[in-house]
Amino acid sequence: MQADLSPVIAATAQWLTRAFPASGGALASALCEAQARQAVTVAARLRYPTAMDAALLDMAGPGGSGPLDWVTGADAGLGDDPDAHAWRTWVDEVVASWAASLLIDPELAARAVAALADGGHSTGAPAEYRRLVAPDDGDRSAAALLRHPDLLAPVAGLHQNQLLDRLHPGRTLIA
Q1: Which of 6, 18, 92, 110 is least enclosed, having the fewest CB within 10 Å?
Q2: Alpha carbon 95 to chain centroid distance?
C-alpha cells in the first residue's frame, strides 16, 4: 500500500505553480494546477515507490524549497515571515526536478506513467494522467510557463539523470 505522500505532492505542486504561474484567469489556474499535481504525483510515486521509502521521507523530511528558490530566483520575494512560507518545508527538490522533466517531455511522462502501472502503483483509470501525457491546446495555453522547456530547464536538469536511470534501469552507458 502506498504511504501518504500528499503533503509533499501538495507543497511541490504549489511551488511549481507559484514559480511558473498560469497565464489567464481562474480556469487557466485550475488547469495549470491539475497538470502540476499530475506531474508531481507521478514523480513522487516513482521517487518513493514503497511504504518504507515514504516513511523514511516522513522521518527525514523532504528538504524544502530553498535550493529550488535559489535556482529560479524565487527566493528574492519571500519576505521575513517564516510562518507564511511553512508549506515550503514540504517541497521535495528531486520530485520537483522530476516533475519538471515530465512536464517538458510528454514522451518521458508517458514512460513514467507506464512505469507506475508496471510497478502496480496506478490507482485509477488510464486517463488519470491525461493532462500530463496528452495535454490539449487549452492545457498548453494555461500552463505555458509551466511547460516551457527553457524556463524549466534549470529545475529539470538538477536531477533528470536520476529520473532517466529510474525509468531505464540497467541501460548501457556509452562513453
Answers
A1: 6
A2: 5
